[in-house]
Amino acid sequence: MTTSPTRISIGLEQGADGYLWVHPLDAAGCAGVGASPGEALAAFERDLNEWLRFLASVGEPVPPPDAELEIAVDEWIETDAKTAIGESAALFAADLRALGDDELRHGVRLLGDLRGTLLARIRRIPRRGVDAALDAPAEGGWTIRQVLEELARAQWWTLGRLGASPMAETPDSTIGRLDTAMALVVQHLGHLDADRRGARVELDGEEWTPRKVLRRLLWLEWTLGRAAAAALDHGESA
User: Fold this and answer.
1) How many whole angstroms separate alpha carbon 89 and alpha carbon 80?
2) Is the pTM above the cut of 0.85?
3) Which of 40, 56, 90, 223 is 20 to 30 Å from the Cα of 50, by its Cα?
């Protein structure tokens, strides 16, 4: 007996520089970028496999390892973003759907699982060695601390697309900033009024909806958190 392949809906964003982002429309978190559709899709498939392994590790239902995955391009749009350097401005038709209660709870839970995995990795560092470990190099010429600081900053900036006010004060420590940003994300999403869950707003020339915000928050946590953890592992094994 054959089983039907698991369908993964994606949207392609072609930026002003010709590079393409692959955005998952129903498996938010992973993504892929490349100079051509084939290159971007190959990068996405690699990231999707890692994402599915992570989901399985936190008890989420995922297709069996030998399941066939059907990656379906449901939308293809052009934006002014410089996609080759990681910019994105895509708003897909799928992003216009209002978030339901279960989707919000699920998204917040995944954010918590991702952050918990990252913090568990940081806590493995002996207390006296934390500062030295965080100031070690990561990819792109950044330090691990700078990656984590960017994660906190980008989270709060993205949440601001839903009308959240800038933080009046930020903690001095990097971990404190991460904790504060995540607490505000959970609080804001957890109290998002039903009549705002499908709202569409334009800020600084880019359109946003709550679904797009959640998609971006998961992507930030997945990519930056994983980059920091990988750099810590590399430093530990060096």
Assistant:
1) 7
2) yes
3) 90
